[in-house]
């Protein structure tokens, strides 16, 4: 993770060995920078409690077992975390909804579909448009209306 450049290296990207390499970078959205810095502080404190330095633990989101062993989260542990988040937030969700939510929000905020597609590591915008992010009808109608209402330019 490089906070000075607001990037994170994706070592196990979707599509690994097919079309994605293991040195892809993903942007850290500026508004998330504070949360990430705070998370890294808390991560470091948690690892110190079990006798490890933050740099010596490979997982960015390490699972620290009751016996102090540090490892990766398995499917069962992710499910337990999901239940805890749902109970705390009173919002039911699916992990797989996070990617399309990010994509649609970025599109709604004005990011070009090409940029959204690249962030999702899609090889073309077709997948992004079909399954992740589309221009909303009200935005499309507004843009077309603006185009038609723009003053005509005379060519001399």
Question: What are the defining features of this structure?
Answer:
single chain; 156 residues; 6 helices; 4 strands
Overall description:
This protein has 156 residues and is mainly α. It has a domain of 58 residues. Helices cover 46% and strands 8% of the residues. It contains 6 helices and 4 strands, in the order E-E-H-E-E-H-H-H-H-H. It has a two-stranded antiparallel sheet. A hairpin with a 5-residue loop joins strand 3 and strand 4. The longest helix has 17 residues.
Topology at a glance:
Layout (H helix, E strand, L loop, with lengths): L6 E4 L13 E4 L5 H17 L13 E2 L5 E2 L3 H15 L8 H11 L4 H7 L5 H8 L4 H13 L7
Antiparallel strand pairs: 1-2, 3-4
Helix pairs in contact: 4-5
Q: SSE order, as H and E?
A: EEHEEHHHHH
N-to-C span: 55 Å
Q: List unreliable stretches of 5+ residues.
A: none
> Which whole number gives the mean pLDDT?
86
Question: DSSP strand (E) fraction?
Answer: 5-15%
What Rg do the Cα atoms give? 21 Å
Which structural category do the helix and sheet elements fall into? mainly alpha
What coarse outline follows from CA principal-axis ratios?
elongated
Instruction: Give the tally of β-strands.
Output: 4
Q: Can you summarize the main beta sheet? A: 2 strands, antiparallel
Short description:
The chain is mainly alpha-helical. Helices cover 46% and strands 8% of the residues.
